[in-house]
Amino acid sequence: MEGIILTFVFLGLALFVLTPRKTIGATISALSFTGYFYLVGVNSWIPVALFTVGLLLIVLEVFIPDFGLVGISGILSIVLGLYWTLGDLTQTIQDLSIAIVITAAMVVYLIRRGYSLTNVNKLVLQSTDPGSKANDSVKSPDHPIKPGLRGIAQTPLRPSGKVTFGDNSPYFDVISSEGHISRGTPIEVEKVSATKIVVRRQRSLTF
């Protein structure tokens, strides 16, 4: 039972990070967090603090690329907080495993539905006139984006991140269709819509 409640802590966190439904995600996560520690019985505030810090570090890792140490510290903090609460390493691993597997499935589902950090960021993308062929492009001030446009990954794409198209280009939030793409990799636009830009590694030109 506790493992299922713990799962909802992470599911709420996934909704908070990947979708615009931040209030719903935060509420689910907070209520589940409270319910979990209430059910297992907590005699000290230390494990609660460790778990909370761990969650915050993981969120920070998601929003700030290349801070691997922060994410690892967050995971260790969560594990330590749960172990401190349960006093049983096997139960700790079991509860976390259930939560991670179900949350991972949820994250994959959300990404396939088009949700990612790209949707969360403040970049405003305007689509062209519906019904025309230009419907496959996205407009930004002085920088029309369309399939085939080439640029450079300015952050790791995991699968979302930031790229630029040309020397004076602003940063654009994109999603990689090929999974992880390292920073500095040449990319090209694969497809676009009103809400997202999908990119891939540049293909060699053939004649």
UniProtKB/TrEMBL annotation:
> What does the record give under GO molecular function?
hydrolase activity
Please indicate if the UniProt record lists Hydrolase as a keyword. yes
Q: Which GO terms describe its cellular component?
A: plasma membrane
Annotated NfeD integral membrane domain residues: 3-108
Q: Which residues, if any, are the signal sequence?
A: none
Query: Which Pfam families does the record associate with it?
Result: NfeD_membrane (PF24961)
Answer whether the UniProt record assigns the keyword Hydrolase to this protein: yes
Q: Which UniProt keywords apply?
A: Hydrolase
Name of this protein: Hydrolase
Q: Which organism is it from?
A: Dolosigranulum pigrum
